[in-house]
Amino acid sequence: MGEVNTSCAYCGVGCGVTVAADGRSLTGDRHHSANFGRLCQKGERLLESLPLPSALRYPRLGGERIGWNDAIALMAKTFADTLAEYGPDSLALYLSGQLLTEDYYVANKLAKGFWGTANVDTNSRLCMSSAVSAHQRAFGEDLVPCDYQDLELADTVVLVGSNAAWTHPVLFQRLLRAREERGTRIVVIDPRKTATAAQADWHLALAPSSDLALYSLLTMALHGRQVVDEGFVGAHTQGLDALIDCLAQAYPDTQQALATIGLVHEAFERLLALYASGKVVTAFCQGVNQQVRGTDTINAIINCHLLLGQIGKPGCGPFSLTGQPNAMGGREVGALATQLACHMGFGDKERELLAHFWPQSLPPKAAGLTATELFSAMADGRIKAVWIMATNPLVSLPDRALVERALKTCPFVVVSDISADTDTAKHADLLLPALGWSEKSGTVTNSERTISRQRAFMAGKGEAKADWQAVCELANAMGYPGFEFASAAAIFREHAALSGEVTRAFPEKHFDISRLASLSDEAFDTLTPVRWPFVHERHPHQLSSRRLFADGRFAFKDGRARFVAPATTHIAPDKLPDAEGVWMRLNSGRSRDQWHTRTRTGHVPALCRQEWEPCLYLCSADLACLGLAEGQLVSLRGQSAEEGAAELLLPVMCDDGLQSGQPFVSMHWTGNELGSGVNALTSALIDPISRQPAFKSQPVLLKPVGSLWRQYAYGAVPPPEQSMLRRQRLCIDSGVAELSYFSEGVTPVPAGKLRWQRRLGEQKVLAQLWASLGTVTGFALASDSPLSLNHQAFANLIGRELTPRLIDEIEALLVAGDSPLVCLCKGVSQKAIKASLATCPEGMDRALWVRESTGCGSGCGSCVGELVTLSSEFTLTGELTHG
Fold it and tell me: In sequence order, which residues have a C-beta less than 8 Å from that of residue 167 and are 6 or more positions away?
């Protein structure tokens, strides 16, 4: 039996995956430089994610199936008519880091080359555009100077705004092994005590959005301590004196600034010593990018490394960790509204080069509308036709009310996706079926600039097409030349060739993969992972990578990097509203086992066990102050100016890794679970430089909700007749489960075969059975307060014989309750960990004892942070304490 080597569909680590040719088994690729055979829990369950419950397999117009020829003809006519009547800026594409590089390339070519509009943006704008802007300002080009091996060669790795243990778990496991093998220190700077912070050597829980001030103060202090690499700074940079003057005026009193950001002087001195005395990698992610001053913050981090000469050398440098599998590939082909292909801008010479390379094209003269601007333009009628590919902006963009109005206002909305059940797909005029991860072939580029092949190992189902095929068919139907590609390989060759043309015209630029432009189809099919820039060797197919910036040459014409002074130096957060109520600053982010808007992971039972339903997490002090108990419901409202802005109803849970006044909610929940996405609460604050939305630290109004009834239903249960506030499906191993919340004053009273009532302590519980021919067909439990339930055990009642003994079993299940699953790999619950801790011999490492006795943490390692936290909080009384 053969094997297919491909790449993972999830985060920016870009792990290699080996799939059996029959598609029945999957392992990590032992030879891939990103993961060397290791996978996280999502990666290990890629095959389980393939049977989509609402797979889109045929084009649909207004909900009705149509043929591809009719779909393409409709698109060609509508886009052409709109272009003729309203001009190029009435059209737009909104793309995604889920696309392959080849999809990205032809979409960008169509819009910027032949429609003549730069209104082409990607959901990477929401994740990484502040890093793009910072790299451009400091290095002259969007270039990430580090690779993964640097994390293993550093003396210290500082993670800023990154919960890598959950967001980049395989990479974090590499970092932990580096600490074990060579003593690498791990420092985490994050307002939350995350799973990553729990495993760090040192956690700095600063005030939100204080990273700009911290790194500005570090730069001044390093400069004052005379640890500057004078040779590097003098030969390879410019602007240091102006930067120091600016910072000295912005931060005249270091002690006062440190107090503002929540850092004591001794801790600052300790961090300063780490940067001054050894090789440091500063790795950052969304906690930095998604700030109003994200670009300035990243430049402040880069400033520190330039000052120390820690760029282009092993084991040091600023490292942007991308969030999506091909966010980097999209940036390279120019799929951001603020750039042209191959890292080019909109200057005359750059546009002329592109017009020559794409004959008969007319590239736009200026940047286009970025993500939030694009949907605002749709809402006010400027965008008349849009094509959205492989993303769900109604959930992922801020200010959901505005985005929904935009989708309803735009006359022609085309959506390409693998599912018909996303919040955005439901607003499409035309739905196009796209090939999914297992069915499509092309390339992706990960966070360290490694190009990997994504290969199909299953045939496409129905009439789904590769996104690049759909784009090329539209371009051909509109009469544009240059889209007669027979394969993804042909597109990749053109993309690679263009990069060579760009570096010949602009020798200062670094992105050049033109040595791959001569790959045959066979060589493309067998291409192994390769990281650019390449070593210059005689044979074109003997490729190995060289270190970026090792020669001290940056992408400005003078070859010098720039120290960049911040455009603004405010370090105090904006005041919370004065309106009546309890206002807090909400943070949202990834949960451990889900991906984006749950389209590919929300139906996999094992990935749902960590968090069954949307929850709002608060520290115990806030719970006590508000008089809330775990599981009690609260309502949340944001500051959206849109009429009808949503109110979210969420149960509260305790997390003492949070600071007071800073609740947290997972970003993955959508309208299918909440009735509205989490971003219904977020306003469209953006970084003024990168135009990236600032999702972090958003003001929300929190109000406790009175006691509401909730119902858990299993099997065939009639829909409740009473008014419901929320209803969602719970994903379990077998059967169907649903959770419903009812309006205040409503008690669910279904009419079934058997109904009874009981109390669990202070809780009132109603139970209801439906049966046919003596066999249970449905079962529902309703309570006036939260229930701890083993959902799978109750679902297993369906199909059982209806006997008195069954009632006793149900009673026992109610008393037994359930415990959250901590380790998916080994099936270890929090309850099992607690039992193991109770038997831990005195003096033995508790986490190690649990690992050896239960297997928890011995699989992919994603759960180790939670294991460490639980072990540290466990007391001899057998309780888990908060604090």
Answer: 11, 285, 286, 321, 323, 589, 590
What span, in angstroms and rounded, lies between the C-alpha atoms of 358 and 505? 16
Q: Whole-number mean pLDDT of the chain?
A: 91
Residue 876: C-alpha distances to residues 448, 819, 870 (Å): 45, 20, 13
C-alpha to C-alpha distance for 867 and 823, rounded to whole angstroms: 9
In whole angstroms, what is the distance from residue 439 CA to residue 435 CA? 6
- The sheet with strand 16-20 has its strands ordered as 3-7, 16-20, 26-28
d(CA 539, CA 464): 39
Judged by DSSP in three states, 280 sits in strand
CA distance 414 to 71: 10
Q: Are 820 and 609 in contact (CB under 8 A)?
A: yes
What is 810-830 written as a DSSP string?
Answer: HHHHHHH----EEETTTTEEH
Query: Model confidence at 130, in pLDDT bands (50, 70, 90)?
Result: very high
Asked if residue 545 has pLDDT above 90, the reply is: no
Q: What pLDDT was estimated at residue 877?
A: 43
Predicted TM-score of the model (pTM): 0.92
And the tokens for 404? 């929904």
Return the SS3 of 59: coil
Least confident of 229-243, 434-448, 627-641: 627-641
Closest of 436, 439, 471, 462 to residue 60, by C-alpha: 462
Sign of CA dihedral 230, 236, 240, 241: positive
Supply 631's token pair. 């599981």
pLDDT in tens, 725-752: 778 888 877 666 888 888 766 766 555 5
Least Cα distance to 498 among 364, 340, 367 occurs for: 340
Least Cα distance to 273 among 308, 323, 325 occurs for 308
pLDDT of res. 883: 34
Tally the C-alpha atoms within 13 A of residue 584's C-alpha that lie toward its C-beta. Answer: 25
Q: Please give the structure tokens belonging to residue 879.
A: 């309780």
- Cis-peptide into 748, omega within 30 deg: no
Q: Which tens digits make up the pLDDT trace of 368-389?
A: 999 999 999 999 999 999 999 9
Residue 880 has pLDDT above 50, yes or no: no
Question: What is the C-alpha separation between 409 and 412, in angstroms, rounded?
Answer: 9
Integer Cα distance of 281 and 807 in angstroms: 60
Q: How far apart are CA 779 and CA 752, in angstroms?
A: 9
Cβ distance 556 to 140 under 8 Å?
yes
Q: What is the mean pLDDT of residues 288-295?
A: 94
d(CA 150, CA 317): 8
pLDDT at 709 over 50: yes
- Sign of CA pseudo-dihedral 49, 52, 58, 59: negative
Tally Cβ neighbours within 10 Å of residue 739. 17
Q: What angle do CA 250, 254, 256 make, to 5 degrees?
A: 95
Grade residue 766 by pLDDT with cuts at 50, 70 and 90: confident
Alpha-carbon distances, residue 723 vs 677, 703, 738, 785 (angstroms): 21, 21, 16, 18
705 and 633 Cβ atoms separated by less than 8 Å: yes
What is the average per-residue pLDDT within 853-870? Answer: 86
pLDDT of 292-307, one tens digit each?
A: 999 999 999 999 999 9
Residues listed for the chain? 883
Token pair for residue 677?
Answer: 């996405």
Contact between 316 and 145 under an 8 Å Cβ cutoff? The reply is no
pLDDT tens digits, one per residue of 558-568: 999 999 999 86
How far apart CA 444 and CA 529 sit, in angstroms, is 10
* Number of other residues whose CB lies within 10 A of the CB of residue 32: 24
pLDDT-wise least confident of 177-186, 468-477, 682-691 = 682-691
496: three-class secondary structure by DSSP:
helix
Q: Rounding to the nearest 10 degrees, give the CA dihedral for residues 773, 774, 779, 781.
A: 140
Both tokens of 621, joined, read 């002090």
